[in-house]
Amino acid sequence: MAATGNRAAEAHVAASKFPAVTLKISARQINAAAMVEEKLCSLYDSVDYERALNRAEKVVAPFEGEEDDEGTTYGEFPIDFFASILDILDPPPDATFLDLGSGRGQIVFAAAMLRRWTSLHGVEIIPELHFIADEAKPDTDAPGMTEMTSNADISFHLGDIFNFNTHVIRPSILALPAPSPPWFVFVYATCLKVDHNGGIDSGLDATLESLPINSTVVTINRPLASSSGSKFQLQRAFRGPNPEAADSEVLSTAFVWAKVQ
User: Fold this and answer.
1) How far from chain centre, in Å, is Cα 121?
2) Angle of helix 106-114 relative to helix 79-89, nearest 10 degrees?
3) Nearest-angstrom CA–CA distance, 64 and 237
4) How far is CA 126 from CA 104, 131, 215, in A?
5) Around 230, how many Cα atoms within 13 Å sit in the side-chain half-sphere?
6) Any residues with CB less than 8 A from the CB of 138 and at least 6 apart, and which?
7) How many Å is the Cα radius of gyration of the chain?
8) 10 Å Cβ neighbour count for 151?
9) pLDDT at res. 231
């Protein structure tokens, strides 16, 4: 995984060039994260991993050829940093949550445990991770749903975030009446494909340009592509814990973007 480490290190160097406020994570947020992590362990302990992997074997991965492990393998985002971001940005309860590159669903579940939303979605390209997330999802009337602050529907989708034109999420956004409630989009972008300026590959633009005005996009360790500038404005940037770095002095950067047109 040396290549992954190199790309992650390069991302953190690029992100460090942006002015950002270092967050002081409160004791309340640390405690909230600890409770979320305990609930997540309970969810994942209940997963039938054999069934999840069997389901993964029956589908064709949504990418052509052999996927680049460098672009799809990295750690879980720290829940205390995520809780801090949500507290500061304070998305409204009528917002829809979307995690692009959702892995086994940890951030989607954490969002459901921490806030109220209209609905929550995760999109993941790796079938094994996607089906683990789907198996971990409790039924609406199951006891596990009592762990969620939000009782909104949670959906996981197997798909490529850079090739979203035929995906179920984008048509659902386009079908929304105008004006419509905002979306809150989270992208853990450390190892995603990048453009020549070090921003997230512009293939993501087709996904994000469909979002309602005033939606928020949070990208971790990578800014949006320069081509996104007319529709998205950088509002602020935060620094917080970085689970990928051996050195605790190396922090992750969260870029906060607003959809303006």
Assistant:
1) 9
2) 50
3) 34
4) 9, 9, 27
5) 3
6) 43, 144, 145, 147, 148
7) 17
8) 12
9) 87
What are the per-10-residue average pLDDT scores of the chain (261 residues)? 50 62 93 95 95 92 52 74 96 94 95 93 92 87 54 86 65 65 92 79 81 92 77 91 73 92 82
Cβ neighbourhood burial of 83 (10 Å; 0-12, 13-18, 19+): buried
pLDDT of amino acid 3 = 44
Integer Cα distance of 85 and 11 in angstroms? 20
Burial readout 179-212 (b: 16 or more C-beta within 10 A, e: otherwise) = ebbbbbbbbbbbbbbbbeebbbbbbbbebbebbb
d(CA 66, CA 234): 34
For residue 169, give the DSSP letter.
H
Q: Which of 89, 74, 84 is nearest to 110 (CA)?
A: 84
Number of other CB atoms surrounding residue 251 within 10 Å: 21
β-pair type (232-240, 252-259)? antiparallel
Cα-based distances in Å from 56 to 47, 66, 113, 135, 223: 14, 16, 27, 11, 32
CB neighbours of residue 11 within 10 Å: 23
